[in-house]
Amino acid sequence: MTNDSTGTLIRKTSDRLGRPPAGHPAGAVNRESVRKFKSWLVRIWPSAAVFVAVVLIWEISVGVLNLSSFVIAKPSEFMQEMWISREMLLDATWVTTEEILQGFLFSIVVGMVLALALARFHWVERALYPLIVLFQVVPKVALAPIFILWFGYGLAPKIILIVVIAFFPITLNMLVGLKAIDKELLLLMRSIGATRNQVLTQIQIPTSLPYLFAGLRIAITLAVIGAVVAEFAGAQNGLGYLIQFASTQLDTPLMFAALILVSLLGLVLYYAMSLAEYLLARKYPHITLQATN
Prior knowledge:
Blueprint lengths: L2 H15 L8 H39 L10 H10 L1 H35 L1 H15 L3 H12 L4 H24 L3 H9 L4 H38 L5 H10 L3 H32 L10
Helix pairs in contact: 3-11, 4-5, 4-7, 4-9, 4-10, 6-7, 6-9, 7-9, 9-10, 9-11, 10-11
């Protein structure tokens, strides 16, 4: 292999791995990092500005209208409550996070297995897909007390409810990705004698990865909702339990504090999933659909 060919191969490999090739000036890397940081600031400041404005309007409006804290708490009041009850809130946050993560992992397994089965066997798709859609439209709030009746007040009914709520976007998105195969590429694979399993593992699954990650980002937010709904139905700890307990005690600041933590938890988990996708995309660039998010 000539030196020019070797150099070209090194540059291509470096680009694929997201690293600068040998001899690449460090200043260019620093400029790229600064550019990405500025781009991140441009994307984040509108949301931050709207958030600050809403909090200020909320704080001022409650004071001006002289609303009772039993009706709606000021941001300053539930922020103070978050500090006073920090140990209880942190303990509840950990309980809810554990439920969410375990339920989400089971949702990934169930969702991917269903998607692969539906894509691989047409008779399975014809038999199960309408039932999956029908099951998805059943109100999940109505299922929570049934699961508690069947499985008790432990962790099991909460995980099952999270799986029931969160598996659908994983299954649906991955199934769309598995069917989004290039027809010409499929004909090429068949012309060289590839089996259906080879087409599935070598073409369809890699093609479906961007769709899978889109489904995972949706599913992680639904898992948060599922955990809170399950805790509403029956629990002895967790953020959902605290929200319900605070509402019965007319402790509005505590209720808002727990609600804010649930929202922040969902936000952190969503962006953690996006971060995982970004890190994997640096090594496998074809797995991501979000080029600008």
